[in-house]
Amino acid sequence: MSHCSHCVYTCRPEKLLFNIGVRGSGDGDFNFPRSVITTRDGDVVVADTMNHRIQIFNSFGVFLTKFGKRGIGKLQFSEPTDVAELPNNDLAVADKRNKRVQIVTQGGQFRSMFETVDEPYSIASDLSGHVIVSTSRRTIEVYKKGGKLIHRFVIPGVSRDTFGCKICVNNRQEVIVCDAVNATIKFFTYEGRYVSKFSPRSYSEGLSIIPSGITINRMGEILVADSLNHTVNAYNDNGDLLKQAICPTDQAGCIQACAVGPEGHLVTTEFSLSGPHTLKIFRYRPCHCHITRPGSSKRRTPTPQTFRWERC
Fold this sequence. Notes:
Strand order of the largest sheet: 22-23-24-1-25
Oligomer: single chain
Strand content: 35-45%
Shape: globular
Number of helices: 0
Structural class: mainly beta
Largest sheet: 5 strands, mixed
Helix content: under 10%
Distance between the termini: 23 Å
Order of helices and strands: EEEEEEEEEEEEEEEEEEEEEEEEE
Number of strands: 25
Radius of gyration: 19 Å
């Protein structure tokens, strides 16, 4: 695609920047990547669930490191389903089948672990160091720093066994629950008091959705991934649809999780039973590093030695 001298700033560029990985077990490949976060430094951390490991990439999708293998020991996992960054930059990993949370450094060094009441499915942390766990039994467990359980409550609504809810937390010490079964976003205090809820609506009236992932951006907007319609939409706390971040025409697929990086990228993981298992990085907010970048870049097992691009 060619550009005239001025249209690089006036034409709308493609949103998809990087499409990383295929279904597999190599570095940078995935097997049911259920969760993704971005760290304060801009790295991308993926819970590579059925490979029983955590993978870390930089903001350009370049593979940096991995840790974990299947097992019950330290730094071993059995279907890690989510990860959260703690205030000291350590990572809390939801080690689902081992029914515990492991605390590790971003370099893959073991710190500590604590058991959970039910199998952890999704995990979040706040600036005070609380670790909030959503379980496969549709309960919320709130732990103080160090792993002491202080609150536990049930998420109301129609339930399915072993089908957990993705969560995030806001700056008011509220848990925001992405309830895919009931197609609602629900707010609770840490003590379990119901605050409010809304049903995310799409751009098409009457269109069914499956909210599969949730995150909050720096402006306090709630981004909800819809795995059925291959979109990520932004809402306010009242459930008003603010904008559509990505959709199928942006090459979005069956999105399972989403996160926003400090440089302005929107990061997703995607998988389906018959489709690709991949990590994607999209334009979201303006970033100088990709303002002139055309097209998307699809790579398998990228490494720092084979990929170069200027830093943001």
